[in-house]
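The records we work with from here on pair a chain with its fold. Each token is a code from a learned vocabulary of local backbone shapes. A record is reproduced here so that you can trace the correspondence yourselves:

_____
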Amino acid sequence: MAEVEEEGRKPSEEFTDESEEEDSEEEPKLKYERLSNGVTEILQNDAASCMTVHDKFLALGTHFGKVFLLDIQGNVTQKFEISSVKINQISLDESGEHVGICSEDGKVQVFGLYTREGFHENFDCPVKVVALHPQFTRSNYKQFVTGGNKLLLYERNWLNRWKTSVLHEGEGTITNIQWRANLIAWANNVGVKIYDISTKQRITNVLRDNVALRPDMYPCSLCWKDNTTLIVGWGSSIKICVVKERNPTEMRDLPSRYVEIVSAFETEFFISGLAPLADQLVTLFFVKENSDQMDEEFRARPRLDIIQPLPESCEEISSDALTVRNFQDNECRDYRLEHAEGESLFYIISPKDIVVAKERDQDDHIDWLLEKKKYEEALMAAEISFKNIKRHDVQKIGMAYINHLVEKGDYDSAARKCQKVLGKNMELWENEVYRFKTIGQLKAISQYLPRGDLRLRPAIYEMILHEFLKTDYEGFATLIREWPGELYNNMAIVQAVTDQLKKYPTNSILLTTLAELYTYDQRYDRALEIYLKLRHKDVYQLIHKHNLFSSIEDKIVLLMEFDKEKAVDMLLDNEDKISTDRVVEELADRPELLHVYLHKLFKRDHHKGQKYHERQIGLYAEYDRPNLLPFLRDSTHCPLEKALEICQQRNFVEETVFLLSRMGNCRRALQMIMEELEDVDKAIEFAKEQDDAELWEDLISYSIDKPPFITGLLNNIGTHVDPILLIHRIKEGMEIPNLRDSLVKILQDYNLQILLREGCKKILVADSLSLLQKMHRTQMRGVRVDEENICESCHATILPSDMAKPFNVVVFHCRHMFHKECLPSSGTIPGVQFCNICSAKRRGPGSGILEMKK
């Protein structure tokens, strides 16, 4: 029995054409299994003639007149001996409790599977089809129809007797009946009719297209997609008919419903069966031997296609050629296609074989991807649907993908996938590491090893580091930088690097890596020595991070030679840890480096290194003359005599001029400008800065016999010295360049001065008038005097307690108040009095603004 079951569950390739599967990269839509178990035994001695499908079981009719009830796996649950000849049709109601059977010898039986009470009748002609009312179990719907030469309707009346009605006759043998809700569809030699049982009206007649085909050899296939949509397949044509309600205004003598054909198209092969699949169609085709070029074995194979109907054509979605048993001996009428309403199961029935087709699930999809070696897509599909897959495991698929990549030689991709696939399984990780070691690809997996919360044994990481140390110094250095020091035994790796340095003592990569290892081990002094030796950029970061300033006091020169700017910034930022005196002491023998340090120190604070300013004069003169003059200007601690001596020795004219002027010897400074620099503009600028009439006189005297100097003076002297003094001293006949322009400029400057004076005068007058008006308004305001005010002289209340008595009060604009008798006598100006308090405080005298008398 096990062998039979195994045979029954072979994959779809047993039933489909292998050559097509190999040539096509498109995934099949359906998978196939042979219905086995009891079916296998039945078909060894008999042949299937018909079958109907219910959600709970199957009913199979044979050529020897037997009906078998089967479970979904094909095991026999019940057997009925109906006739000795072929069973033509089996019909079940929706509940699956009643069955209708008809046979070639005219027998019709309708009975309950659990009661056996029902209808039993023998006719004198073959009955081809029978169909029960879908709700036959309910007492109100005890109806069924049979089809032979006539379409007969059987109804059980209230007396429990069966009443027979002829619905149709005279158009040949009825070969197919399908009952859905209140609609009965049947096919005869002429075409397909639909009858409405509720209104007792025939509502359509769909004619057969190809009348040349024998209806008994190429029977009609009918299938209801829903309560109003009928699919008709006959010969090689398919029509989709929709039953619609007729507009009441159009009825007259017409049926209340009509049929609209929404799609009609031809197919390549002959139709043996139809079934709906969502908005698509599953079609069973019989391939007729109509070409000598076709292989005989292939020509007779039935095909199961999924097509997408269009209004006038169809689109093929998938197509499978099925290798059913004895397919060479079968005709179009020998095949049937049945389907289960509740699920997408399709049964292909042939005399000696029954094949079940079902939609492929996610497991099947993954199977196909794995078979096609599309491992990445298979892994992605498994991850997305991990809750729905039953036969596959995400990790196993991932491992298969990794194995595939390794076999291809794509080691980097295989190692990258390990991160995703192996996850936190340490055992799998270590197995993969050892496998990569075996194939000599430890480098590939090294960068993907776990290094966070999940960590492998230190020996694993050390093994990889040793491998890199033997073959790839740069890769080794990269791992040391990227891997946390806790992953491995630091001392063991330090020793290994040290051993390598004995062979290659100057290898910078090994030295840098050793310094990093020392840093991880907190041996910062050793790391610092290596960094300084290599002049490594991380030396400053190391010093700052681990506060190694005490270790660099004797290495300041090395640091400066490596990077002056960074070294000086670090030293100045940490003066509390390394004093300026200590730095100057270390740099005493390297004046060029000392100058860089002292220059930056001076820029930060002019007073911090004041005791080194005298030394800095020589350093600036030697190494940085452009900054000497700014230094002399900004420094207040520089000895001028020393600076002057150095500048004169080196013939630094500009610096000497500045020092002479700062020391008060402006005439000598001006003389140097005119004689040595011969720069009239600078001489004029110098004279303007000093603003000394004697300097202007010296400048004019020196320039009077030099025309270019006279031009410069004429252009610039106007705002500081009266130009007439210069013009009067110019010798007659002297040729002066650009004299006209210079005179025009003098006149313009004079005109500008006049305009400025007039403008200033107008502004002064306007402001004076405005302030006078404001003062007048202020003085004209009244001043409140009440009981709270006091006399500033006697400090008594300014107002008498008895207001009826006469009194005199003087109030000044400064708001000080006095009794008139408390004021001293008037001053030198008769009638004018001043506030004693404001006069004493030198605020300016205020005249009395109000004298109150009563």
